[in-house]
Write a structure and sequence with these properties.
With 70 residues, this protein is α+β, with helices and mostly antiparallel strands. Helices cover 23% and strands 17% of the residues. The chain is built from 2 helices and 2 strands. A hairpin with a 2-residue loop joins strand 1 and strand 2 (14-19). It is extended, with a radius of gyration of 14 Å. The two termini are 24 Å apart.
Length: 70
């Protein structure tokens, strides 16, 4: 398995964080409404927290994997 690729970029006076999860949630698009937008999905704050910690302190990246998903 390759390590997740992360990025951060300026956005509206703050930062936008992004990355590829090691254990992504999968969705069956056939079950989504025809007017589906990304807003239909629940925000996983635990995953965002892990991502932010791994970007701020790569040495703690393995520790961040222990944070629970919310």
């Amino acid at each position: 398995m390759r390590p997740p690729a992360n990025y951060a970029r300026p956005c509206k006076g703050g930062l936008t964080l992004g990355g590829h999860e090691a254990d992504p949630v999968e969705y069956d698009m056939a079950t989504m409404p025809e007017d589906f937008t990304i807003d239909h999905l629940a925000l996983d704050l635990g995953e965002l927290r892990r991502l932010a910690i791994s970007m701020m302190d790569p040495a703690r990246a393995s520790d961040s994997q222990r944070l629970p998903r919310t």
